[in-house]
Structure formats: structure tokens, C-alpha cells
Amino acid sequence: MPDPSPRPPAPHPSAPPASAGGPLLPGRRILVVGAGTRPSDDPAAPVGNGRAIAVTAAREGAQVACADVDEAAAGATAGMIAAEGGRAHVVIADVTDPESCDRVVMRAAEKLGGLDGVVFNPGIGIGYGLAGTGLADWDRVMQVNLRAPFLVGKAALPALDAGAAMVFIGSLAGTKPGSRSPSYDASKAGLVRHIAAEGAGRGVRANVVAPGLIDTVMGRDASGGNTSRDRAAALIPMHRQGTAWEVADVVVFLLSHRAAYVTGQVVHVDGGLSTLR
């Protein structure tokens, strides 16, 4: 007669250890495209999302390829990682060049000895409203914000084995038209669900992290300084801007085995801004 007593479910064969201690990305090889922070004359300029992601990944045990169109900016990020005892490499990548999008994946894999994760961070916004957005502006934004992640994702997927992950940095503007730039809003809607669907059969995950109002150099430049952003931040349920480090923590989690059953999702890092109408 079968035993009627309940039994605990069997653990998933690839389940990570139950311990919450230890780094999230031990031995992982991560490419961060857009790992630099744009230059600023402000001595108190905040770190950008890409640099924070690269440094946080290294702190969690990963070896990182820091890719950027600005070699000096990528080098500065790699220097920060090295100064903390991490391992980092510099790769030059111009995401407006289709060949460069293919090349950055290949070179990162060569330098790292393979790839376990890819983060695509670059993004630009040009134009204000429909009347203030020219065709050239639209095309430029689509090149960087939509065509480039398509090309990097296309090149990366065959290079990634089961357990690997891709994270694309989107924006709250991709789900709500809030930037007043139609090209930016449209481009940040992204293509992650298709990549996630193709990758799932191979055990490769893909997700979007969609920041809200984050205090970065790009954000300050877009708003002409930080004062107006502070006023806007008062409308956020958490009453403040986020930081690039807070974005990086979510990205690193999604790259890790702790997010092994998370794919095709858009994760908002916005202090509750997406809950408002």
C-alpha cells in the first residue's frame, strides 16, 4: 500500500547551495558593454550604471570585460576593479558599428576564456516630442538603443552555455512614455522576450532591468543639473532618486544562479515610480 504521509519535494538537480553567504558570481566571466562613465567636470559626479555593474560583478567574484567606445573610460572602470583585487580587461566597442558588435563578444570571450554573462548598457536619447525629433535623430537612437542590443545578443547567444545569462539595461520609459523623447521611449521597449524564448531551450536566460530616475551623469546632463531631478524625485513614492549601485545589485542578481528560473522579465528599479499612473 502506498505511504500516504507527505514527502518533501526533491531538490532541483542544479539547485545552488542553500547558504546565503559567499559571492554571487564566483568564477563567472562577464562582458559589460558600456562599462565606462561619460566624462564630467563635476568633481562629485556620480558613477554610471555600466561602471557600477562592472565593479559590482567583480566584487561578487566575476572576471569582467569592460567594453566601451571610450577606451579611457573603460580603462578607468577596469582600474577600479583591479584596485580592489579583481580581474578586468578592456575592450573597445562602438555599438553603432555592426561589425564592432560582433567583435566585442568575440574579443571578450578570448580575453576571459569564455563567457557566462553579457550586460548591454549603452543608451542615448535625442529629440523632444514628435515635432522636435528629426529622422536622423530617430535613426541614431534606434542604432544605439535597439539595433546594437539585437546585434550583441545575436552574437552572444551562440557563445553562451547553459546557465549563462544576458541582461539589457532598459528604462521605465520603455513601459511608460515619460522621457518626452519618442525615439528613446520606443527603443527602450526592447526585444528581450524574443531572446529569452530562443535562449531558454539552451538554458540561457535574458532579462531587462528598467531603471527609473537614477542619479547618473547622463541623467544630470539631460535635466540640466541635479536640482530639477531632485524636485522630480519628490514625486516618487520613495521620495528620492536611485543610484547606479542599486541598479547594479539587481543586474548582478539576474546574472547569478540565484535567478536561475527568471527569464523574459522586465524588472523595474524605480523606487515605486512605475506604480503611479
TrEMBL record:
InterPro entries: NAD(P)-bd_dom_sf, SDR_fam. Keywords: Oxidoreductase. Residues 1-16 have a biased composition (Pro residues). SUPFAM superfamilies: NAD(P)-binding Rossmann-fold domains. Residues 1-26 are annotated as: Disordered. Pfam families: adh_short_C2. It comes from the Bacteria. Residues 17-26 have a biased composition (Low complexity). The keyword Isomerase does not apply. The keyword Oxidoreductase applies. Belongs to the short-chain dehydrogenases/reductases (SDR) family. This is SDR family oxidoreductase.
